[in-house]
Amino acid sequence: MIRRRILHPLSFSTGRRQFLGTAGAGMLATSLPGCSTPASVVPSYPNTIDWAQKAIAQVMSEQADAAAISVALLKRDKLVWQQAFGMASVTDHHPATTRTRFNIGSVSKVFAGLAGVILQDRRLIDLDAPISRYLPGFKMLSPEYQRITSRHLLSHSSGLPGTNGRNIFSFAPIAGYAADTESELANAHLKHSPGQLAVYSNDGFTMFEQVVLAVTGQAYADFVEEHILKPLKMTDSGFLRTAKPPGELAYPRYQGKQYPLEFVNAFATGGLSSTPADMMNLAQMFLGGGVFEGNRIVSASGVAAMAEDQTKNLKINPSPEWRWGLGWDSVQQPGLAQANIHAWEKNGGTAFFSTEFFVLPEAQMGLLLTGNSAYGAKALAIAEGILLRALQEEGTLAALPPMVVNAVPALATPANVTDAAGIYGNYKAPMQVDLDKDGGLTLNQWNGQEWEPLFKGAPRFQYRSDGWWWSDNGSLPSFRFSEASGTDESGKAYRYRYLMQRVAPGARLGYVTLPIAQQLAPLPNISAAWQARVQSKWSPTNESRESVSWSLTENMQFSVSTLAALPGYILFGGADMGYQLLTPLDDDRAGPSVKIPVNHGRDLNEINFSTHNGTLVLKTGSLICTLV
Questions:
Q1: What pLDDT does residue 39 have?
Q2: 398 to each of 265, 402, 417, how far by Cα in Å?
Q3: What domains appear along the chain, each with residue ranges and CATH number?
Q4: Distances in Å between the alpha carbon of 172 and those of 67, 90, 445?
Q5: Hey, which of 31, 73, 357, 533 has its CA 20 to 30 A from 142?
Q6: Gap between the Cα atoms of 489 and 502, Å rounded
Q7: At 493, is the secondary structure helix, strand, or coil?
Q8: What pLDDT, in 10s, does the model give residues 430-447?
Q9: How far apart are CA 404 and CA 611, in angstroms?
Q10: Nearest Cα residue to 51 out of 29, 76, 81
Q11: pLDDT score of 26 more than 50
Q12: 258 membership: H or E segment, kind and range
């Protein structure tokens, strides 16, 4: 997707984008409700604000590219704090103000979810009807595409490949991204059946743009601006479709350099720019059950539908604590759940910015924290810290919940899992899983040339009494194996083994588990046609020179090769996009090999070869590549 650098903004992950989900089982809340503030009184939160100012100042001092950060905190219908820090443009000496707009990335998906329930309120769509009812021209190579619904699109369970990476981020507006995505999907297979599992999918939200256009006659951006932003009085928010004057938006910074304004051409997926204060109008509407300043924007049932757990009927769900909503990453956010606080959460990243958005329906609180992406590794911890301290300061919490302590459990003897050793695939890079005779686990990852340890120092993980493999000092994530088995809709049995990872994200208040790789079995040797392409390199011909990918990647190239440790697969990728193991479908096409829920099965490639104007080309997504 982005910059082809495997960072995959418009999403979340450890580090730059934090994984969000429901807290792990077994963690008991240690903070009990105290004497809360009367409803007629809105606290001022001086201690919380002081802590947050110091936390933001510290991360900005540690990360030079974190040039600007902005925040707003809402209690009921009162904006109790808003503040901007740093410089919107270092080059032009423009300080960030509370009206400086930031690209909020995938937080934009909340607006797509809201648009969906508004359209259902108006009986223009049925969220559970196939989108082919509204898009008769939509098609894919997998016949199951006819079962994709708007609910699937808005809850990451459609089975669409992931992200159309061509021209998604750019330094000038590039029109037609959604139509381009629909067109390229006609030459792609689904990576899983609709509703089988949920894995982060930007393409789903992009296709929902096409649904909105079909049923309203309005382009998605126009619909949101007219029917959501305008009635919510979000006057400092919108989709960037034209250049803006200096000082209105925060500018990108990367490796010490300031870049021109960033345009996100995938509007529903991640294209909104906004201010924290404007976003608190949206939060206030959610807290009001769909009403803002006496005006109903959406039904109360629509707000409730967005916050309903969409994972209940998934067939493959090895991380049951993960609870997607419609547009929300989590409708039971894990960190705050450790203090018995119910929160809806969405984070977002673009190539250059990182954002956290929270709504606490019972506590009647909202928060938006946004800034240059250099601060992104600390964004979730700061956001959780602000909210928990505000709840403590107002008396809702008697004390802050403790952080997870990585106390390494006692050694134990694992069941016989020797068959779990082997090669695993995901969206990023193949993994080599080794289990020695003493039950020790070692993990390596393919870097394009050779296997290297997944973690510095090549640690050995040992099985412990809690059922997880730990490193000796407990500072690293812990791991275990999980299986998903059953029968698919065609009657074919399946059995997938996942390498599971457990981390304590953000403020380290609780664990989150997720599958990070899927074991793959050897296949018959690849055909002579594929053998002839091994070690070939390909360069895109139709990526805009204004795209972030083209501008920040010195030499955009993809390679077609194989992996000696796992016969029968095609290894496709490059240093800036990672490496994926693909299954040959015929002599000219190869597609995804894994079905991994949550995040590590996202943005999977399908490649095919054809002749275009007399020249052999490789197509992946909507990119057309020629032989180098």
A1: 55
A2: 45, 12, 45
A3: 418-519 (2.40.128), 528-627 (2.40.128)
A4: 22, 20, 36
A5: 533
A6: 31
A7: strand
A8: 999 999 988 899 999 999
A9: 56
A10: 81
A11: no
A12: strand 257-258
Distance CA 358, CA 113 (A): 15
Residue of 380, 422, 455, 368 lying closest to 565 (CA atoms)? 422
- From residue 612, alpha-carbon distances to 607, 609, 615, 617, 618 in Å are 15, 9, 5, 6, 9
What is d(CA 81, CA 389) in angstroms, rounded to the nearest whole number?
14
pLDDT digits (tens, 9 = 90+) for 380-423: 999 999 999 999 999 999 999 999 988 999 999 998 899 999 99
How far is it, in rounded angstroms, from Cα 25 to Cα 430? 30
d(CA 313, CA 85): 44
DSSP state of 309: -
Taking the CB of residue 82, how many other CB atoms lie within 10 A of it? 18
DSSP letter at 105? G
Residue 146: C-alpha distances to residues 130, 143, 150, 183, 611 (Å): 6, 6, 12, 16, 29
Tokens at residue 498, please?
A: 């996942």
Q: Which residue is it, tokens 């203090």?
A: 339
Phi (first) and psi of residue 14, to 5 degrees: -60, 150
* For the chain, percent of residues with pLDDT exceeding 90: 87
- Give all strands (DSSP E) within 110-242, no chain letters: 169-170, 238-239
Angstrom CA distances, 59 to 277, 377, 518, 540, stand at 22, 9, 35, 37
Cα(269)–Cα(200) distance, integer angstroms: 11
Residue 18 pLDDT? 29
Answer whether 170's CB lies under 8 Å from 263's CB: yes
- Among the listed residues 494, 471, 492, 472, the one whose alpha carbon sits nearest the alpha carbon of residue 484: 494
**Greatest CA separation for the chain:** 76
Hunting for tokens 């134990």 — which residue is that?
Answer: 412
